[in-house]
Design brief:
- By secondary structure, the protein is of the alpha/beta class.
- It has helices spanning 30-37, 55-62, 66-78, 83-92, 98-107, 116-125, 138-148, 182-194, 206-209, 230-233, 243-248; strands spanning 41-44, 129-137, 155-158, 160-162, 168-171, 199-203, 219-223, 238-240.
- The strands form 2 sheets. Strands 3-2-1-6-7-8 form a 6-stranded parallel β-sheet, with helices on both faces. Strands 4-5 form a two-stranded antiparallel sheet.
- The chain is globular, with a radius of gyration of 17 Å.
């Protein structure tokens, strides 16, 4: 599949949501701060974390089915329906063709969250390995990875499937991120293969929170600079509304 001509991103201007007084996890403990600073791998969610958009919602809107698909996304991210059910339901509403996806990538460059490029560079400078783990699609995440100089082998995401004429066939159900608990599976695979001692997951949704488990992520940082999902934020080890909060701790 051809890539868009330009990977120039639009750095979105996002006003971080104000932390509510009901959250007591916006300041990290010494233990959490040390774990973050000593991490040898950091896994990022993509939609509403690395990027300010939900990719499948944007593609659906581009194809004329935005509202209905966005409603399903909200349910999936809140954890109220199994992820694989929501993914199949959303795609069935608009069935994007290969040419539509290519046209979308040409006309809608990724909008990355403010500070994410600096944060990734800081992590790399500390020899921390960076991964993108997403319930979105590789076709749309490859340009994001290119902007951030993250190698393709460090991407765990879903794959849209097309026929010989470019018609939509579905998605690859063998990808771990196509199912509920898939991000946790991906993180566990990464940890097992590379033998990381300290691994951190950063994201905004229920599927990201699931990655914090024995054998998976040691630490879950909830990034709520785009979407504040209270059920997820309240259970996170550290709640941040701006990537500067993380950058500053790496100075």
């Amino acid at each position: 599949m051809k890539h868009p001509k330009s990977f120039n991103s639009v750095v979105a201007s996002v006003q971080p949501l104000e932390a509510s007084t009901r959250f007591d996890n916006t300041l990290p403990s010494k233990e959490i701060l040390e774990l973050w600073q000593d991490a040898d791998a950091v896994c990022f969610d993509v939609d509403s974390t690395v990027c300010v958009d939900e990719g499948i919602d944007e593609l659906a809107e581009f194809c004329g089915a935005g509202k209905a698909v966005a409603e399903w996304t909200a349910r999936a991210m809140g954890g109220s329906v199994p992820f694989e059910e929501a993914l199949a339901a959303r795609l069935s509403l608009f069935k994007p063709s290969l040419s539509q996806v290519q046209d979308f990538l040409e006309k809608r460059p990724p909008r990355i969250s403010p500070g994410i490029d600096v944060l990734v560079k800081k992590l790399k400078a500390r020899n921390t390995n960076v991964y993108l783990i997403s319930g979105g699609f590789r076709q749309m995440i490859n340009p994001v990875a290119s902007i951030l100089e993250i190698p393709p082998e460090n991407i765990f995401a879903n794959q849209l499937l097309f026929g010989s004429s470019g018609e939509f066939l579905g998605f690859d159900a063998n990808e771990p991120t196509s199912r509920s608990g898939g991000k946790a599976t991906a993180v566990m695979q990464i940890r097992k293969v590379h033998g990381y001692k300290r691994l951190v997951m950063i994201g905004d949704g229920a599927t990201d929170l699931e990655a914090r488990k024995p054998g998976g992520a040691d630490l879950f940082i909830c990034y709520a600079g785009v979407q504040l999902r209270e059920a997820v934020a309240s259970k996170s080890d550290w709640l941040v509304f701006n990537f500067k909060d993380l950058i500053n701790t790496l100075e």
